[in-house]
Amino acid sequence: MLSRILGPRLEATAHCDLPCGVYDPAQARIEAESVKAIQEKYQGNEDPEFRARAIQIKEQRAELVKHHLWVLWTDYFKAPHFEKYPELHTLFNKATKAAGASGAKGSMDPAKGQELLDLIAEIDKIFWETKAA
Amino acid sequence: MLSRILGPRLEATAHCDLPCGVYDPAQARIEAESVKAIQEKYQGNEDPEFRARAIQIKEQRAELVKHHLWVLWTDYFKAPHFEKYPELHTLFNKATKAAGASGAKGSMDPAKGQELLDLIAEIDKIFWETKAA
Amino acid sequence: MLSRILGPRLEATAHCDLPCGVYDPAQARIEAESVKAIQEKYQGNEDPEFRARAIQIKEQRAELVKHHLWVLWTDYFKAPHFEKYPELHTLFNKATKAAGASGAKGSMDPAKGQELLDLIAEIDKIFWETKAA
Amino acid sequence: MLSRILGPRLEATAHCDLPCGVYDPAQARIEAESVKAIQEKYQGNEDPEFRARAIQIKEQRAELVKHHLWVLWTDYFKAPHFEKYPELHTLFNKATKAAGASGAKGSMDPAKGQELLDLIAEIDKIFWETKAA
Amino acid sequence: MLSRILGPRLEATAHCDLPCGVYDPAQARIEAESVKAIQEKYQGNEDPEFRARAIQIKEQRAELVKHHLWVLWTDYFKAPHFEKYPELHTLFNKATKAAGASGAKGSMDPAKGQELLDLIAEIDKIFWETKAA
Amino acid sequence: MLSRILGPRLEATAHCDLPCGVYDPAQARIEAESVKAIQEKYQGNEDPEFRARAIQIKEQRAELVKHHLWVLWTDYFKAPHFEKYPELHTLFNKATKAAGASGAKGSMDPAKGQELLDLIAEIDKIFWETKAA
């Protein structure tokens, strides 16, 4: 990823609903990268114990993706954002579904993980536009 | 922070002990930024209900800092790193203490949050050196 | 896992994202009723220790409301529902905000808890219509 | 379940040990329904990845059943109840065991899930009698 | 405590409901000792920030006491034990209540913490008798 | 909080970072004994459902070992201890690694569990020396 090439940078969210005011879609994206990485490792390792751990850990990371996205959708994005980006609700709904049973949770295919990453990338694009605005 | 000026970047860790192979001190640093932000907001708001929530939420974020640091110390850094950087154990021990009762947890002074951030910055520097090596 | 570090927590959802197929907005509503009940008890009891506990427990219950609602929005409601009820995304977004810092989390006023309950009631009405369909 | 036939009703418990005063065995029952549903789905799907997820999720739901029952037993039921219903302790002990390793956790047989539901139904009956008293 | 005087011993429980077969009331007792220690420290420190943290942390430790006791009651003790010790159900019910809102959670008085410890000591006595049997 | 989303979890530590002042390596050791016990039972039971549960539960117990050790390393041991016992940092780092993916988490071989127990025994020895000092 570009970020790793460019060096260390501040990213992940610190959602605390105080509110803290610190948000970043990167946290959801990183968990999704873990999900995809686990799917790839699963495909490359047939050991049943390894695979059992992979499934368990992927389940947890995917749940974290859902949570990070939900937090952005509820705590960061406000009514004016949803007016400016009428596709935003649907995008978040699709992304959180893509992290769930019908998406990355329910499959060990890295293509599912990539679909999730692609949806998060769309959210990330809008997020930074709102930050710049 | 530089990262925000430079735009969106990939950061946070995806610790899963599978292992996933994805680590970044930014996650600890972001939680520490939240801790400091909460301390600052606390100083600026005397409402007892707000302050009670701030203390509770800071406790949780500070615990997350400890966890992220512990994970880096155990799961990312290996014996060769500790040989090359003999100060690394002490640095992690000080940083995790700085996130705890004797540091950021036990104080609403943003200076304590900054001390924690400074220690994390030292870890971050070494981390990226090991990545580049 | 982060959850273990943070201590024991109650997770009372009928959400299992297997998927299980069992959903009911009542769970969100009950947590919201607890939130309002805590606000009412807080107003009637000035003991500082009681009030501190009330704030802490309300924070947890309100977070559960957010989670239950998010799960319904992502795991139960599907695209056809959102087409039939175009107001549904906004309704869920408002309801989850009403459970958060700008709503029930950030206030000990039972009126805020009632606002949250009213929004959940609107969701509940739509939910049962989809069930009957 | 009667509650679903009769329409949406107050279901889940809001255990908060403040105390909140809101309890309902339905929450334990719903989790037990999830457990049984997972057992049924497991029997009908031989995919090893699906089965691994089913086992993991059932473990979590069953643990929730135990917790909801424990909370009722400790926080809702009082000494006069135990005097009036001398079988109540044993009933709760059997029900929480039925949710555990020797019961629903340790088996993918829906009959085990049904045994758990039957025990919860007995608790539910007594619960509503105490409410009516 | 006897265990500390006699040297380090097997203390905490390893409840895993696999079952693992490793149980010890000491874990509940240790958490109760923490609860009492927090109550004592609270009485000796009037700083509002310290007190807020103390209340929050005591709430968590007390909840752990409840959980450890519940696990012993459900996972360790069996029907023959309850026959041999007919007071056991009531003892566990009183102990878990003593850790809750009407007991140690709801008070910063170390006497409440001591009451909880006394009840746990009674459980511990019976526990070791069953182990010796 | 993330922890709520992830489901109910047991957190059995005497760590409260208030600070409470109550610590004992026995807790880490007991969890490690559970880990080894699970590995032994796994070897003796080929039932796929049992094995799946064993892997899942061992993962959780091993994570608890890591946490208990980290807490001792950060919250109990102080700078003078690390000066007196210069091997202590390395010992803790090895022990937490032994509880992780390269150790007990990643293997169903009881020998791995025993290695972890041996490292904890070394920590325990130093711990009680510091207590006696």
TrEMBL record, chains A, B, C, D, E, F:
GO MF annotation terms: superoxide dismutase activity
Domain of life: Bacteria
TM stretches of this protein: none
Gene3D superfamilies: Nickel-containing superoxide dismutase (1.20.120.400)
EC number per UniProt: 1.15.1.1
Keywords: Oxidoreductase
Signal peptide annotation: none
Xref: Pfam families: Sod_Ni
Enzyme class, spelled out: oxidoreductase
InterPro entries linked: NiSOD_sf, Superoxide_dismutase_Ni-type
Keyword Oxidoreductase: yes
Name recorded for this polypeptide: Superoxide dismutase, Ni
Organism expressing this protein natively: Kutzneria chonburiensis
